[in-house]
Amino acid sequence: MYKINLQQIEYFLAVAEKLNFTEAARSLYISQPSLSKQISLLEEELGFQLFIRNKRMVRLTPAGEVLNRRWRKWITELEISVEEAVKANASYEGEIKVGMINTMAVQKYIEPVFARFSEKYPQTMLSFESYSFKELREKLLNGELDIIFTFYFDFDFQLNDDIDWKCVEEMRLCLVVPRSNPLAQRDDLTLADVKNEPFILISPTDSPSGVNRIVDLCRTYGFQPNVKKYVPNISSLAFSIANGNGIAIHSDKDLFENDDRLRFYPIPDRTHDSDLIAVWRRKNSSPGLRAIIQEIDYN
């Protein structure tokens, strides 16, 4: 491995351009003897001569011509890469707009992601807003939000090929039953056991995909759910179930996680359905967004 530094390369390129040690030294703001010494040290390190010198002229050797061509191109690439890095860093100084479903449980799982991001990129402003399922989808698609955190069941990814996603936290899809319901005395409960029970669902206006998934799931067990009530958001869903108004199908790690008024019965073989996910638009080229996505991978 040759011990060559960037300064020596710059000195060599200056002499190769001027083909005059005095003029090259002047352009570098150093003395001519110092420049000559550095070129000699470089030639000694390489083991061959770079310039042919005499009293009347300086010219490159064949080896010097090769290095002049290669190193000049490399310096240009180096300068371009630094400029691109500066621009990327400036992008990190902007704002990343984050949306999340209106439940405290979501915040618990995304906090580590943004804690790491803020530690690495303190100059980036992060803004957080809570919205309904519908508002999150609309604001993401129209560019008002850079990234949203929601549940897998709320998105039909086949409808928009500009959307990408990653899982933030795996969650089990469960039957959620109030303990006041006699069925909650059982250790095991399946969807077939609750076919006559009143269901509470998030409004199809707010989450049409979520409602369709639940209806389709019930149909695989041979029944159409008896929907007693549609509610506008997850908070309303939690209160309605806890007060004995019906049962629901939802995640075991969301708003209800520590509510001892409820029992959870996992529904088998439901991959992804209730996972907490991050969703963003592929066309969003923000470097800050890409850095957040990388932090999700470390979660």
TrEMBL record:
- Domain HTH lysR-type, by residue range, is 4-61
By its UniProt entry, which PROSITE patterns does this protein fall under? HTH_LYSR
Entry GO CC: protein-DNA complex
Transmembrane stretches, by residue range? none
Any GO molecular function: DNA binding
Pfam families listed in its UniProt record:
HTH_1 (PF00126), LysR_substrate (PF03466)
Q: Which UniProt keywords apply?
A: DNA-binding, Transcription, Transcription regulation
**UniProt-listed InterPro entries:** LysR_HTH_N, LysR_subst-bd, WH-like_DNA-bd_sf, WH_DNA-bd_sf
The family line of this record is: Belongs to the LysR transcriptional regulatory family.
Which PANTHER family does the entry mention?
Answer: HCA OPERON TRANSCRIPTIONAL ACTIVATOR HCAR, TRANSCRIPTIONAL DUAL REGULATOR HCAR-RELATED
Q: What is this protein called?
A: DNA-binding transcriptional LysR family regulator
- Organism encoding this protein: Catenibacillus scindens
Q: What is the lineage of its organism?
A: Bacteria, Bacillati, Bacillota, Clostridia, Lachnospirales
